[in-house]
Design goal:
By secondary structure, the protein is mainly α. It has six helices and two strands. It has helices at 2-11, 35-63, 69-77, 79-95, 111-128, 136-148; strands at 15-18, 21-24. A two-stranded antiparallel ribbon has the order 1-2. A hairpin with a 2-residue loop joins strand 1 (15-18) and strand 2. Helix 2 (35-63) packs antiparallel against helix 3 (69-77), helix 3 packs across helix 4 and helix 5 crosses helix 6 (136-148). The longest helix is centred in the N-terminal third of the chain and has 29 residues, at 35-63. It starts with a helix and ends in a 12-residue tail after the last helix.
Length: 160
């Protein structure tokens, strides 16, 4: 659904010059830069592009435990407000002086977060051919945790 909406959005924004007049590429009788195209442009700027940015930024935030799985899914549904909040937090974090490092050990990721990261990383590796996002130790932890997950009763696992 997202792919179709994103593709359609940018198709109706694709204008070409014909006889010194900008018209839509898909329909040369429609003049460009009318009121409805500005609404489509606002939709692209407010929904389509921020969604892509969420998909690029959120997996690393999940891995660093700066984002919960619930917040990730909420950011996918309404990306622009979450990006604004994340940007403000990021700027706030770098505006303050750094705190001294502590000798805390990291808690292991919960199974739900590991499952979401596994899905995202599998998708990334199919598209890019390699994943540089996670370290080798995290990949081993992710693989072991995913192999130990069992389906819920009454919810048989699908064959992939």
């Amino acid at each position: 659904m997202y792919q179709k909406m994103g593709t359609t959005t940018f198709v109706v924004l694709n204008c070409v010059p014909v006889d010194n007049v900008s018209v839509l590429f898909v329909d040369g009788t429609v003049t460009c830069y009318t009121h409805w195209q500005y609404a489509v442009l606002a939709y692209a700027a407010g929904c389509v592009t921020p969604f892509c940015i969420v998909l690029l930024v959120a997996p690393s935030m999940l891995r660093r435990r700066q984002l919960s799985v619930v917040a990730f899914f909420a950011a996918c549904l309404c990306p622009l407000p979450f990006l604004v909040v994340w940007l403000i937090r990021h700027l706030w974090r770098y505006a303050r002086p750094p705190s001294p490092p502590t000798a805390e050990t990291r808690e292991p990721l919960d199974p739900g977060t590991l499952a979401v990261l596994g899905i995202l990383l599998t998708s990334c590796s199919e598209v890019q051919g390699q994943v540089k996002v996670i370290q080798q130790s995290d990949l081993i932890t992710l693989t072991l945790a995913l192999s130990n997950l069992k389906p819920r009763p009454g919810n048989p696992a699908r064959a992939v």
